[in-house]
């Protein structure tokens, strides 16, 4: 469930808005949640197979057309298959794109609107999380280097005409 986000992440957002947004197109799953100053104000998770998994707080303005039935799922059946009614009144990924736009200012899959931020222009900064009382990173790196140096040289293979592996000298 969305509300199971680790407490230290919510605590780190004190005084700010924390947004979680996740979609999985293979299973038509959507989840989003919003915390304001560490307090959960909205959480929604749903998919056609699981139904409404979590629905906490009042729907946000961008959700209202979906819940009112103004944005029904437009499902096209595979050729030769009968059309079965979609398990939800709207498509989660459509709502997910509108949620992404409303909460973050950009979209990933839909047609961009003039005011959308270009998602490809957003700079992401990397970080490395490590155990605060764990091993020293420099020592871990040195240990990895020693392990690699102790390995035999790589061996290269190609597939023979009968499907057997034939060792080669190099790539």
Protein architecture, described:
With 171 residues, the protein is an alpha+beta fold. The chain is 21% helix and 23% strand. It contains four helices and six strands; from the N terminus they run H-E-E-E-E-H-H-H-E-E. The chain has helices spanning 7-12, 64-67, 92-104, 137-149, and strands at 17-24, 29-36, 39-47, 51-56, 156-159, 165-168. It has a four-stranded antiparallel β-sheet, covered by helices on one side. The protein has a two-stranded antiparallel sheet with strand order 5-6. Strand 2 and strand 3 form a beta hairpin. The protein starts with 6 loop residues before the first helix and ends with a strand. The model has no long low-confidence stretch (mean pLDDT 89).
Q: What is the fold's blueprint, element by element?
A:
Layout: H1 7-12, E1 17-24, E2 29-36, E3 39-47, E4 51-56, H2 64-67, H3 92-104, H4 137-149, E5 156-159, E6 165-168
Antiparallel strand pairs: 1-2, 2-3, 3-4, 5-6
What can be said about this structure in brief?
By secondary structure, this protein is of the alpha+beta class. It is built from four helices and six strands. Strand 2 and strand 3 form a beta hairpin.
**What is the N-to-C succession of helices and strands?**
HEEEEHHHEE
Total beta strand runs: 6
CA-CA gap between termini = 47 Å
**Largest sheet data:** 4 strands, antiparallel
Low-confidence stretches: none
